[in-house]
Design a protein that fits this description.
Layout: E1 4-10, H1 17-29, E2 33-39, E3 57-59, H2 72-82, E4 87-91, H3 96-104, E5 112-115, H4 129-138, E6 144-147, H5 150-158, E7 167-169, E8 198-203, H6 212-220, E9 226-231, H7 237-247, E10 253-257, E11 271-274, H8 283-290, E12 295-297, H9 303-306, H10 321-333, H11 336-353, H12 356-370
Parallel strand pairs: 1-2, 1-4, 2-3, 4-5, 5-6, 6-7, 8-9, 8-11, 9-10, 11-12
Helix pairs in contact: 2-3, 6-7, 6-10, 8-11
Length: about 375
């Protein structure tokens, strides 16, 4: 049987939670699909390194631009490109024009499934009315809209006015069995645990919406021996370094850049911390839970619902470094056994609700259904 020809239109295919999930699905579909990947950001294809050997895929060559002012001509050019494929998958605001192309020029178009995973800094403090209207109009021609969180599901139904039967909430999952394995003590370049210290870690793109300078300030105010490890890369790197210098904690900060395979090193942390101004269902929290870590985070998106009820008191009700610092201090002062007990509660919840096998099965079923071929993708 011929492989399903799938086009992926991304806002960016740089390493990150959304792209990592896409890669895991590409790998899971194996020989049943071939993939073409386009990004609205030139050269933003770093996540392709995770695609398994033998998978049939290509980076799109000279695709029509996914960004620009409203233009029927531009939408028709995108639509003409999309007609080459059996299924089109679009991701986030940066690729919404792929959905609009079907709205403007729908004849002969393949099924389109749009995915919304959250918002960047420009919508962290509130959604933009013009974008809401644009999404509402464009999404009328999407065959399905996929969101990972209860928060986004509510926005899709109430703000974007999407029909209940077209909105699908599918939680991101990880291979929880991998995270039970002992971490590699050499997996983080430049990091070696010191006796008696508590290691606070996070995995995040170094972007303004993650508010990592706030996390640095919170950790800088802690008493005791602590180290902060921030795994990720992005434009906020210098701001993080400058904040650490002002706090006099340069020696306590480790910034190794982006590292693949989080299961190899996340277990080196004692606490997983997030300082984001906006999230939905952050994969870093799922990874930390799967590794058996306590979670300290700002109360954004679905984080409070994600973690074990025993962890709720550490998901602060205020997005301020003092509140974050106080929660971190409580866990730093706890014994390793107490942190471990809380982490195991989180791991049990991750296994029950966020395992990768469940996620893959739900995406496979959805994509096959919109294709009109149940069971088609593996």
């Amino acid at each position: 049987m011929r492989a399903v020809n799938i086009l992926h239109l991304h806002s960016t295919f740089s390493p990150g939670g959304k792209a990592a999930r896409c890669v895991r699905l590409i790998n899971a579909f194996g020989a049943t699909a071939r993939h073409t990947i386009a990004s609205s950001m030139d050269g933003a294809y770093g996540a392709q390194s995770g695609i398994a050997s033998g998978i049939d895929y290509e980076i799109a060559q000279n695709p029509p631009p996914l960004t620009g002012g409203p233009s029927v001509q531009r939408y028709e050019a995108i639509a003409a490109y999309m007609r080459r494929f059996d299924l089109v998958l679009t991701y986030d605001w940066g690729a919404i024009d792929g959905v609009m192309a079907k709205r403007v020029s729908s004849k002969g178009m393949p099924p389109v499934v749009h995915h919304e995973d959250g918002f960047d800094a420009d919508e962290a403090d509130g959604l933009k009315p013009q974008r809401n209207l644009y999404r509402r109009f464009a999404l009328t021609k999407a065959d399905a809209l996929v969101v990972p969180s209860q928060t986004l599901e509510g926005i899709a139904l109430k703000t974007w006015k999407q029909p209940r039967d077209r909105v699908h909430r599918i939680a991101t999952g990880v291979d929880t069995a991998l995270y039970a394995k002992k971490p590699d003590p050499k997996a983080i370049p430049g990091f070696k645990r010191k006796p008696g210290e508590v290691v606070i870690g996070t995995l995040a793109g170094l972007r303004a919406v993650k508010d990592l300078p706030m996390l640095v300030r919170a950790v800088g105010g802690l008493s005791g021996k602590v180290r902060l490890v921030i795994v990720g890369e992005g434009p906020e790197r210098q701001a993080i370094l400058d904040t650490a210098e002002r706090m006099g904690m340069e020696s306590q900060l480790v910034l190794p850049g982006f590292l693949p395979d989080p299961h190899r090193y996340i277990g080196l942390f004692d606490i997983l911390a997030l300082s984001s101004r906006s999230e939905q269902l952050p994969i870093a929290v799922i990874e930390g839970m799967a590794a058996g870590l306590p979670i300290v985070a700002t109360p954004v998106g679905d984080i409070l619902a994600m973690v074990s009820p025993d962890n709720h008191s550490f998901i602060e009700r205020r997005t301020h470094e003092v509140a974050l610092r106080d929660s971190l201090q409580t866990l730093c002062d706890a014994t390793p056994e107490q942190r471990g007990w809380l982490g195991q509660k989180n791991r049990a919840k991750a296994i029950a609700e966020f395992d990768e096998a469940t996620m893959i099965a739900r995406y496979r079923a959805l994509y096959s259904t919109v294709l009109g071929q149940p069971g088609r993708l593996g």
